[in-house]
Specification:
alpha+beta; 7-stranded mixed β-sheet; Bact_solute-bd_prot1; palmitate; signal; ABC_tp_sb; transmembrane transporter activity
């Protein structure tokens, strides 16, 4: 308890939704629960983002000092996390005791049954090690880690949405606004659709503002694993390629994979009822390439996700369609060209614009939910120790402070804490978004994906061929959907996923599926409908209601 009090004094203070007395009571519970496991050493792995750096650097040593359980919390690339997880799934060897990996793998975990589902775990072998103050109802992303069997497979540890980012100071500059209206005939504002985004990108690119050349778009294009999630993270549904449905399109999702009523994947190509190579998907890729080539800094085409992320903070980017709120912490640092002297940002975040094929009811955008995952192949006592650590890093005692560092909210009580009411003006709309009902409309990859590691790697390789010019968008997506169906076919033949695995449709003329309701749909004669913008001040009211 001495270690716990020292930690609370030095690190937490009043940045907690709990009183000091309640904090100490929660710490006492961890001390008591950990007693049978004291002296054990466990290994944890997560991707390298600010939130997990804080967990590894501050929370892991504190947990060790308080509980006597030695934690080594490794930080590696997201693709490497998935690779380690895949290795453990394939070999059964216990590589890590706890994975903090995206709930995008929910459909994979549900079908393979190689992870301990949290629902049954808390009622069984994990019962004595489950914090009575965990309060699952307080978590805002549980639906994203819950499979169609209504079991929770992973516990959210951090989450961040993919939103639209723009320079509010430029967009509200009277001179710039007048020039835009004179050139385009409508008001400069937050683009509601891709048509307006493209006009704004064209308008800003090549202009000189604040003594530097400005670009109207930021993105990345290197043929690298990070290029994959640039597209699997709902880009096709934002364009309008999927079916309607929230949190994910059904029966066709944002990867273009169709499932039957039992959630068994039946196809990815249009010939089997999928939409991965549909006209809307081709449009989505072509727009990405067009904007990358014409409105983006030339170096971006050779950048990865992590290299491109900090670029808007340098001050020469007007807007970014596909911007992760995980970058917020690095965007609000004092002295940056995108920050005002009073600590408020010159930029804002807003809902993502949608493409020409999008209709109301389709998925609006992506949200990453990094979640604690316990593998069946991890010995029970090690899993129990890992479960204690997972709960510690999202406990009500520490979550508010952790969220101030990483700005990746998982608890409703945290985002409503008075300290975030005070800080909201410095965060460009983040707090307003996470206090609004919209926070659950942005979602992760859904249950249609039966083997995320195998399927995800196909995306960056094929999209990379399109972004490099080696293939047209249509050729790249034809190859992608065929390769996805090869994986689905192998899973079907193996029978390893039982009644939850793929059952591919017979191929037929794609026109048959185009004639059916929903995705895939025929090519539009006009893929640039009338542009629509909205004033940010009007838009933000929706989040503040």
């Amino acid at each position: 308890m001495l270690a716990a009090r020292a930690f609370l004094d030095a690190e937490i203070g009043d940045q907690s939704v709990l009183t000091r007395e309640e904090q100490e009571a929660e710490m006492q519970w961890f001390i008591d629960a950990a007693q049978p496991l004291s002296g054990m050493s466990i290994n944890v792995v997560s991707e390298t983002i600010t939130t997990h750096e804080y967990e590894s650097r501050v929370l892991a040593p504190a947990f060790t000092a308080i509980t006597g359980i030695q934690v080594t919390h490794d930080l590696i690339g997201e693709g490497d996390v998935v690779e380690k997880l895949q290795t453990q799934m394939q070999t059964g060897e216990n590589v890590y005791d706890l994975y903090i990996n995206d709930a995008d793998l929910d459909g994979t975990h549900w079908r393979y049954q190689q992870v301990r589902n949290i629902t049954d775990w808390m009622a069984g072998e994990g019962a004595d090690f489950t914090n009575p103050g965990l309060d699952l109802d307080d978590f805002i992303g549980l639906a994203q880690a819950t499979a169609p069997d209504d079991k929770l497979y992973q516990l959210p540890v951090q989450q961040f949405a993919n939103l639209y980012w723009f320079r509010h100071d430029w967009f509200t500059d009277p001179e710039i606004m007048a020039e835009f209206r004179a050139e385009y005939g409508y008001d400069l504002g937050v683009p509601v659709n891709w048509s307006a985004y493209e006009d704004i990108a064209k308008f800003f690119t090549g202009r000189e503002i604040d003594g530097q050349q400005v670009y109207g778009n930021m993105d990345y294009g290197k043929k690298d694993p990070s290029l994959g999630w640039r597209f699997t993270d709902a880009w096709l549904s934002m364009a309008g390629a999927s079916d309607k449905g929230e949190p994910n399109g059904f029966p066709v999702d944002e990867w273009g994979i169709r499932v039957n009523d039992n959630f068994q994947p039946v196809g990815s190509c249009m010939a089997r009822g999928g939409a991965t190579n549909s006209p809307a998907a081709v449009y989505a890729i072509e727009k990405y390439i067009d904007w990358l080539q014409n409105y983006t800094p030339p170096a971006a085409a050779g950048m990865t996700f992590s290299e491109a992320g900090p670029v808007p903070a340098q001050g020469n980017i007007a807007q970014q369609m596909f911007w992760y709120t995980a970058f917020t912490a690095d965007m609000v640092k004092e002295g940056l060209p995108v920050m005002n002297d009073d600590g408020t940002p010159k930029w804002r975040m807003a809902p993502s614009p949608y493409g020409a094929y999008w209709e109301e009811g389709m998925k609006v955008g992506y949200q990453d939910v990094g979640a604690a995952t316990l593998m069946q192949s991890t010995p029970v006592d090690r899993a129990q120790a890992a479960w204690l650590y997972a709960q510690f890093i999202v406990s009500k005692t520490v979550d508010t402070k952790k969220s101030h560092v990483g700005l990746t909210f998982v608890r409703d009580s945290t985002v409503r804490h008075e300290s975030f009411t005070e800080r909201a003006p410095q965060l460009g709309g983040l707090v307003e978004f996470y206090r609004s009902p919209d926070r659950v409309r942005w979602s992760d990859t859904g249950a249609n994906i039966p083997d995320y590691p195998r399927l995800a790697q196909l995306w960056w390789q094929n999209i990379g061929d399109a972004s490099s010019g080696a293939k047209t968008a249509q050729e790249a997506l034809d190859a992608l959907c065929e390769q996805q169906e090869d994986v689905l076919s192998r899973l079907e033949r193996s029978g390893v996923q039982g009644d939850l695995g793929p059952v591919l449709n017979e191929e037929q003329d794609p026109q048959y599926w185009i004639d059916q309701p929903g995705a895939p749909v025929a090519k539009l004669e006009n893929e640039k409908p009338a542009p629509v913008t909205i004033a940010y001040e009007e838009l933000i009211k929706r989040w503040q209601e």
